[in-house]
Amino acid sequence: MATIRTEPVTINLGPQHPSTHGVFRLRVTFDGEEIVDLEPVFGYLHRGTEKLAESRNYVQIVTLTDRMDYVASMSNNLAYVRTVEKLSDIKVPERAQYIRVISVELQRIASHLMATGFLLNDLGALATPLVYCFRERERILDLFEMLCGARITLSYMRPGGVFQDTPEEFWDSLNILISDFPNYLDELESLITTNEIVLARTIGVGLLSDAQAIDSGVTGPILRASSVKWDLRKANPYEIYDRVNFDIPIGSSGDTYDRYYVRLQEMRESIKIISQCIEQIEPGPVRTETPFFIRPPIGETYSSVEGPKGELGFYMVSDGGISPYRCKVRAPSFINLTPLRDMITGWKMGDLIIILGSIDIVLGEVDR
Amino acid sequence: MYGLGLFKGLGITMKNLVSPSRQFNIVQYPNRRASPFDLAKLDNQNPVSFIATHPLKTFRSLLGLETITDRMPQHPNFRGEEFVWYDSRCTGCASCAKYCPLGIIEIVTGTSGVNQQEGQSYDIEVFDIDIGRCMFCGLCVEACPYDALHMGSGFEEGKYRRSDLIINVDQLKSAEKKPSTWFRPQLTNRGHDPIKGSTADWEEVGRHEKPSLEDQNEKWAKR
Amino acid sequence: MTPTPALFISFKSLQENFVTLIELIGFGESFGWLATLLAGISISFLIINVMVMATAFYTWFERRMIARFQVRRGPNRNGPFGMLQPFADVLKLIMKEDTIPDEADKPVFTLAPIALLAPTLMIMIVIPFGTFVNEEAYLSNLNIGILFIVGVTSVNSIAIFMAGWGSRNKYAILGSMRGAAMLISYEIPMALGITSVLILSGSLAMTEIVRSQSVWFILVMPMGFFVFMAAATAEMSRTPFDQIEAESELGSGYNTEYSGIKFAVLFLAEFMAPIVTAAVVTTLFLGGSHGFDFLPGGIWFALKMFIVIFGLLWLRSTWPRLRIDQIMGFAWKTLFGLGLFNIFLVAVEFTLADQFGEVVRTKGPEGGITATSLTTEYMLIMAAVNWIITIAVILIMANVVGRKKYTRPEPTPSPLANMGLGEN
Predict the structure, then answer these.
(1) For residue C144, what are the contacts with CB-CB under 8 A and spacing of at least 6?
(2) Is position C411 within any domain?
(3) Is any Cβ of chain C less than 8 angstroms from the Cβ of A13?
């Protein structure tokens, strides 16, 4: 039986699209409904962060790093500030370290809520789980407003600690949030995790094996969903992560469902970390006074933290002046896009959007 | 048990529909429909007397035609989109302009003697802040050694022309001063609330005590 | 209560009234066709107006209810409680420019919205609304009511294909191809669901179907209700089957190139479908206008329609959507099988009833329509048996498929980790 001669067609999933998480362009080649080839094109949000950093001084760059991964500002701030401290040997007081860890874990919850909400929005659930997730994220953003006056672009950390101590009402609100949040996560789970339509669409879709993941250099929840137990908070403990107990959730097969489920479990672990930090924190100074024009000694260093999207690292070269000579960012979203082609070819058009959504990229980080 | 997960999801949605703790806590900005009880509270009367004295308003509000303003509660620490400047404390040192990552503060001081302050202050002729390009990071507030510049607390700064977004020295002097407590712990210690609090005469606004020069020298020398 | 010459109710009474009017004016007997024409025009005017207003308010209701499910308010600025929002929408759409792509197929492009709207309106002709003022309010009592409905809804697939083809746009054609394939495949389960109703009612006329429901058919054959409901939801392209208008994938499907009035008509047709489907489901499965006597039958009909519409909204706001090949698999494998099984079950029970003499055969009031119905006690027994069988079958199927596809092994840490940096 002779079949009809068909031709693969190349379509542009253009930069303006409701569900590519930003200005991200994909040139996809379809053979019928199946995807044959894929070519991502990005750079539409490039703002020259690394070059701008060479003309600002070390405290002003904190405001630049906020805007790279604009969904998780605290982690960006932390990664940058740790690099400067490592370069110039500044010691950070204990209370500042505890406050930093609490902020970063809260930010991790907020970022994962946003990722889960948007994954379900891409699945087509008419924004209902998205609105539920954002309702909880609003409470976290209110906490950040108490801390530092802004909600998304925070600039809370400075080399030497955090710049201001926490107000009194912060701790009460934080306790209320910690006691409410596991119930809310149970509610979200019963809406999504056992829903057969979600299972039918995400199980077995977009597989990434562990060897492939390690070879491509992905980090973060994607790596953990491919059953590789690697987390910088346990492998290279920084700040006070060696004093708190938490687990690292891993997935079993590296498909989209695993990536979603790993994020959900990570939110629970973050709550555990925060409650332990609240018990362990002591009063004290929160900032080592450093001059505005810090001049680190000549040298270079690299330091990284485990952000919500993966390993976020800064490589800084200093020439003794008030601005860095070179500030290179290891952006996790950019590197996590490496296995995109292998993950998507062979699947159908409806799966493309979901797999892209489960990688959870933020274009501010991909393009910087 | 497969097959029941779908119904659990339906149950969660229904629970959100009927649970009063979620449905009645919705804040609608800028204004929402007012019930007669809200109007009575606004007028500081009890509901019965309000309904008796304002029948037309009650009828309109039952039809859904009366509104009252509604805002989310804002923390005093909120870094708003305005600036609060106390010109009697400003010396024209331009530290704020130096700290600004974007370079949008323009300060020109002169010797004409028109704007001379008492003491060792410069004579400030031009003090422009361009809030069209400002990112409200607050580094300028952190910079000011005399606590003359504070962040404001409002956020409704929309204008019709881009040139209207540059605030100059007269606007800064005459604006309503509601300083946020961001980076000003002396305001926090006084319990100042810029939203509800009054903008009283702030000649006596306290100082954010930075470490003394000896302490600073000691700390930096240790590195 | 004697039937007064009411404004609406049925074509026949309108025709008689117009004949009386014409004779009053002074035209003769040969102008009978004028009476028919006028009666037809007034009926169409009535249907179009009522349905368009109902759809407008349904859009308002849907936006408010979905917003409430999402813990927010819907539109509440235009008019009290936002009730003027549909009018604001229509006003905006009318004032937009009516673009036609340069190389589009103009007749096809322009006719597609009309081809989508007309069948949906035509379904309302055969629906028995129950009693308002007079007996038996319906617009026309066709002998072949249900067949008419099935035939008319098939035009929807042509209209969607026309919309996609006329746009001459890659994404629109992709969307409309998927849509046409999906709509055609879901007509079979719909027909199977209807067939099981027909076995019990014995006649295709909608009024007879309502009359034979001494026990509501949703209780008697829940599997048939499930099959019909799923098929009707897919025919309307609502979640979870709304892949063809999936906004989060390639553009907006078949209505990408439409703007202005044509888009308003497409939008109207899309939102009229749930109302019409609810009316059909109420007639077939929920007992039409039967109910307790303290409210007239028409009010019961409206209440039941409201419940079905609310159920559709609830589903829309909760569940994600299925992929197109899963939708087709669902139609051809699951619903087809369940539909056939349901027909078999009902047929077996009907034959047993015939053996035991529980079947009642009546002659309809118009003569020539013979309806069958089972006695109430037998239908209750059927209901009990069928519910147990349905729940058992669905759970067994779900678990068998689920165990095969969706069980996940326990996660074990991969041996490739631990790259020599100490213990994790």
Answers:
(1) C204, C205
(2) no
(3) yes
For residue range C207-249, what is the model confidence (pLDDT) as tens digits?
778 877 877 888 888 888 999 999 999 888 887 887 776 654 5
Which chain A residue lies closest to C422 (C-alpha atoms)?
A235
Instruction: Spell out the CATH class of A44-208+232-247+256-367.
Output: mainly alpha
**Helix (H/G/I), strand (E/B), else coil: A157:** strand
pLDDT band at C362 (very low <50, low <70, confident <90, very high): low
- Number of other CB atoms surrounding residue A353 within 10 Å: 25
* Inter-chain touch C424–A231, beta carbons under 8 Å: yes
Which of A73, A133, A155, A294 would best serve as a mutation to test chain B binding (most B beta carbons within 10 A)?
Answer: A155
H helices of chain A, where?
A: 49-53, 60-66, 73-88, 94-123, 128-148, 168-192, 196-202, 210-216, 221-225, 232-235, 256-280, 332-336, 340-344, 349-359, 363-367
Note the pLDDT tens digit of each residue in C115-168. Answer: 988 888 888 888 887 665 555 566 777 778 888 888 988 888 888 888 888 888
User: How far apart are alpha carbons A338 and C320 in whole angstroms?
Assistant: 28
Q: Quick one: A304 exposed, middle or buried, by C-beta within 10 A (0-12, 13-18, 19+)?
A: buried
The ipTM (two decimal places) reads 0.84
Query: Is residue C330 within 8 Å of residue C80, measured between CB atoms?
Result: no
Question: Phi/psi of residue A295, each to 5°?
Answer: -120, 95
Q: What is the CA radius of gyration of chain C?
A: 25
On whether any CB of chain A is under 8 Å from the CB of B173, the answer is: no
Q: List the one residue out of C2, C236, C26 whose CA is nearest residue C119.
A: C236
**Within a domain: B208:** no
CA-based nearest residue in chain A for residue B212: A289
In sign, the C-alpha dihedral spanning C398, C401, C404, C406 is negative
CA distance C20 to C15: 9
Which residues of B are less than 8 Å from A191 in CB distance?
Answer: 8-9, 12-13
Binned average pLDDT, 10 residues per bin, chain A of 368 residues: 75 74 84 84 88 89 88 90 89 89 92 90 83 89 87 87 83 90 89 85 86 87 87 86 88 87 91 90 82 86 90 90 89 90 85 86 87
Does residue B40 sit in the same domain as residue B111? no
**Beta carbons of A191 and A316 less than 8 angstroms apart:** no
List C residues 175-194 in contact with B (Cβ-Cβ < 8 A): none
Q: Are residues B161 and B186 in the same domain?
A: yes
Residues C177 and C60 grouped into a single domain:
no
- The residue with tokens 């994962």 is A112
The domain containing residue C14 runs over which residues?
A: 9-23+35-87
- Compute the mean pLDDT over every residue in chain C, rounded to the nearest whole number: 80
d(CA C90, CA A305): 53
- pLDDT for C8 equals 47
Nearest-CB residue to A124 (from C72, C239, C413): C239
Determine the pLDDT at residue C6. 40
Write b or e for each residue in C11-26: b if 16 or more Cβ atoms lie within 10 A of its Cβ, otherwise e.
Answer: bebbbebbbeebeeee
Residue C316 with chain A: CB contacts under 8 Å: 126
Residue C211 and residue C280 share a domain: yes
Instruction: Give the phi and the psi of residue A286 in degrees, each rounded to 5.
Output: -115, 0
